[in-house]
């Protein structure tokens, strides 16, 4: 019976060992030179393993000038300046520096950042475009030239007087404004609803507008 119990205990221990054995994460660095692997972050702690130059390793943590690496056999600590980054395809690249940081993200969860070289600076966000003010501008000459005046939605003139009566040749519309223009007073006669800029007005309205209403 004792032998059976011992065999069962050994089997259970093997199962427990399999259950708690850490899975190897993908390598994120390589060794720049042969190094001893120490038991703790203390540089005077016992040597528990060794790594060769060019060997791929997985960095789990860094404290000061030393980093904890995961390798076949006992894991342990090496000097950070002996670690290099990985290039394309996860291959060692001597010109790619290695950096490691550990912190807490905005969601309160641990956050690990591993740098593998000079990253491009983030591009500044484009400035938001200012919205055009809704308005309509009238010009005495074509192509938005000559004397002018501007009005906003809600403005109206049932009887243009003075030098502006029958003197408008182009209309510029901004934003979401639109304007009703008519040949006669009181918004009578031939009218047109204009919702986009007109560098030159049609013949029946050119130099013939006598009233308007902006919406």
TrEMBL record:
Gene3D superfamilies linked to this entry: Crystallins (2.60.20.10), SH3 Domains (2.30.30.40)
Signal peptide as annotated in the record: 1-25
SUPFAM superfamilies: gamma-Crystallin-like
Domain of life: Bacteria
Database matches in Pfam families: Inhibitor_I36
Keyword Signal on entry: yes
InterPro entries from the UniProt entry: G_crystallin-like (IPR011024)
Keywords per UniProt: Signal
Claim: Signal is one of the keywords in the record: yes
Coiled coil (residue ranges): none
Protein name per UniProt: SH3b domain-containing protein
